[in-house]
From TrEMBL:
HAMAP family: UPF0145. InterPro entries: UPF0145_dom_sf (IPR035439), UPF0145_YbjQ-like (IPR002765). Pfam families: YbjQ_1 (PF01906). Belongs to the UPF0145 family. This is UPF0145 protein BW727_100724. It comes from the Bacteria. Gene3D superfamilies: Hypothetical protein apc22750. Chain B (3.30.110.70). SUPFAM superfamilies: YbjQ-like.
């Protein structure tokens, strides 16, 4: 499966199928949440939250690709990511794009 954030793939002609998406809501455990809270007092990277967001993006992308695979798509174009805080220490990540089939 080819994944791109452009609306074209060089050298490929395709027909658009439909929008596909994937999402997840992730949180860290209370112990990590407390240590990350303390980290905000001294500054620096919040590694546990950074890891959480990377895991969330990977899982959301996997779910989007699974949806496109069911449609027998060859690629997903114009991919976009969005995230939002759901509650303290929890975030939603959504990814969406257009599933396409090569001609």
């Amino acid at each position: 499966m080819i994944l791109v954030n452009t609306d074209y793939i060089s050298g490929k002609e395709f027909e658009m199928l439909t929008m596909v998406k994937g999402s997840t809501i992730q949180s860290k455990n209370i112990g990590r949440d407390i240590t990350q809270g303390l980290k905000t007092l001294i500054g620096g990277e919040l590694k546990a939250y950074n890891d959480m967001m990377n895991e969330a993006r990977a899982l959301a992308t996997k779910r989007m690709v699974e949806e496109a695979t069911i449609l027998q798509a060859d690629a997903i174009v114009n991919i976009r990511y969005a995230s939002s805080a759901v509650m303290q220490g929890a975030a939603e990540v959504i990814v969406y794009g257009t599933a396409v089939k090569f001609k």
